Amino acid sequence: MNLFLDMKTIILLLCIGYLFTLILISAYGHNHSKGLAIRTFFLAKCSQTIAWFCMVFRGEIPDFLSISFANSILFIGTSLEIIAFLYLQNNFRLKTKMVMIYLVLTLLSIIGFQLIVLFYNKENVRISYYSFVIAVILIPVYRMVLGKASTFLMRIIGSLYLLVIAAFLVRGVTALLSSTDSISLYTPGAYQLISLLSIYLVTNLGNLGFVLLMKEKADHELIRLASYDDLTGTLNRRTFTEKAKKYLTDYSKKGQPLSYLLFDIDNFKTINDTYGHHVGDQVLQDLTTRIKQHLDKEDLFVRYGGDEFGILIPGKDETDSNEIAEQIIQTLDGAISRSLPVTYTISLGVLTVIPDQHMQLETLYTTCDKALYNAKNNGRNGVFRGQIDVHNAVS
């Protein structure tokens, strides 16, 4: 069976595929124009589409367009594609610096290719240089595999890209060691077949991988919006209740303590009435930022509404929870923030239990709420420890 292919036909089909990709990305980006990742990816696909169209007409248009220009903007397109993936992964914390590095690398790659065309225009050398440069440009995808925040999907796509890097390195070495025309994409043979299949793999991997990661990121954002309070970044009541009930079940089986803190801001209505709700919102944000410094990853921090908050701390006994409560009170007591025109304090109720299978979250809340009001009646800006009535705790 003859598997040799017509190069121009295959590249033309590849160009058509790129065009459809551009159309779909344009349609998606119409309502997501502020997304830096999608705009960068769109520019990458534009560059690659132009490059492949130039290659379709190789032999019919000047070599400057089909070789020099086409390969140069392929370098640009590949760089933009990787930048888009890294933006999508939120790996560019120093965005300007990283983009500048890529711009310099791409410019040097283009200059090097043009020097080869001018002074040593051998096809195997051009192919080898192009393959090695693309492999270098793709190297940052290792972050998708090794990044601490990488998802399983990111690791899979990153691993496939690493295979692509290996393929380009093999292609570069093969081309460098060969002096015949058999390594040309335009010469029918096994090398052409393998190269074209590699191109399709890279194309599909880039397009499908980007779309899947966009979808994953959108899903995570929806989960975040459904689980957290927009203003403070704390858990909302529904999510907190689900997680807290699971903690109660787990720790009743372990026979280990849980501590629950309930608090609100002293005279918060006065702050809103005097300084306005904008300052009130800033106080809430400042409050949660300061308190989060004293919490562990496993602790559940919820905003019930208004200025009322709760914290469920697994594995902490009375001594530990007293220490945490006092630290929070001291952190907020008279704390001055440059962004706030007012200082504020909180009153806090605290409760520690070793839950049993009948323990209800509502019981913790009700008991702690009484402790909170006792703290307010004692002069505010303080802590009061509650105790559960064992008879009322059983439902």
Automatic annotation (TrEMBL):
Q: Provide a Gene Ontology MF annotation, just one.
A: diguanylate cyclase activity
Transmembrane residue ranges:
6-28, 40-58, 64-88, 100-121, 127-145, 152-170, 190-214
Residue ranges occupied by any GGDEF domain in the UniProt entry: 256-388
Report which superkingdom the organism of origin falls in: Bacteria
Q: Pfam family of this protein, just one?
A: GGDEF
The record's keywords, sorted A to Z, are: Membrane, Transmembrane, Transmembrane helix
NCBIfam families xref list: GGDEF (TIGR00254)
User: Protein name, please?
Assistant: GGDEF domain-containing protein
Q: Which organism is it from?
A: Lysinibacillus xylanilyticus
